[in-house]
Amino acid sequence: MAKSLLVISRQAPWSGLSARESLDIVLAGGAFDLPIGLLFMDDGVFQLSQTQGPAAVQQKDLTTNLKALEMFGVEDVYACGKSLAERGMFPGNLNINIKQLPQEQDISELIDRYDHVITL
Amino acid sequence: MKFAIAVFSAAHAPSSRRALLFARAVLAGGHEIVRLFFYQDGVYSASANVVVPQDEQDIAVQWQDLVRTHQLDGVVCIAAALRRGVLNEEEALRYQKPAANLSSSWELSGLGQLHDAAQSADRLVCFGGQ
What we know:
Chain A is α/β, with parallel strands linked by helices. Chain A has helices spanning 18-31, 63-71, 81-86, 104-113, and strands at residues 5-9, 36-40, 76-80, 99-101, 116-119. Chain A has a single domain, classed as Hypothetical Protein Ychn, Chain: A. Chain A contains four helices and five strands. A five-stranded parallel sheet of chain A has the order 4-3-2-1-5. The model of chain A has no long low-confidence stretch (mean pLDDT 94). By secondary structure, chain B is of the alpha/beta class. Chain B has one domain (2-127): 3-Layer(aba) Sandwich (Hypothetical Protein Ychn, Chain: A), CATH 3.40.1260.10. Helices cover 36% and strands 19% of the residues of chain B. Chain B has a five-stranded parallel sheet with strand order 4-3-2-1-5, with helices on both faces. The relative contact order of chain B is 0.26. The model of chain B has no long low-confidence stretch (mean pLDDT 96). Classes of the chains: A alpha/beta, B alpha/beta. The A-B interface holds A 2-3, 5, 10-11, 17-18, 21, 24-25, 28-29, 31-32, 34, 115-120 and B 6, 8, 39-40, 79-80, 83, 110-112, 114-115, 118-119, 124, 126, 129-130.
């Protein structure tokens, strides 16, 4: 059986390349049909904001890439509820569908379910 | 045990040095490294053009020596490397750049190689993630 991988994305979309490059790992895993999960945590949840203005910082919008997750068969997409709440964001008001993990214990249980973890 | 080692930080970062020490310890312990995968700023370690002051450790060269001595499978993510100006002859030619700087120890390839390594390894150990 294929080994599963959880990618934890912790950086804001415009803080450097981490948001894009962590997503690329997930999309590549999806393309190979591997069991892969993605967790947005800390500033990483800003990637889920509906109101991003990438043009103001001469960047491309990552939302299109995020929407490709579904197309690549990546269904296990999570966000840390605490990180969302701390930044005034809510699960009903995001650019893609995610499963919210309300408790810190949910995060550790999620990590436990995967064979490998990459945090970027 | 089979290890896959992923490095996300540049050669001058403490985490790259720790990864190097870890890789040596893995081999010294009689374990196997199925692949070294350099991603994000880790690709800078594969540049043959890193110059460090004489009284400092040259981690990029030590990585190159490790890969060569133990004939390890050293893979550098091609997309991450192109962004950061780490090119082999083929890519320098393709994008009409004046020079190639990828050390001969390393091979440029895609993210599939990271997934492939994770599949065949008992442990994926990452260094320099944020």
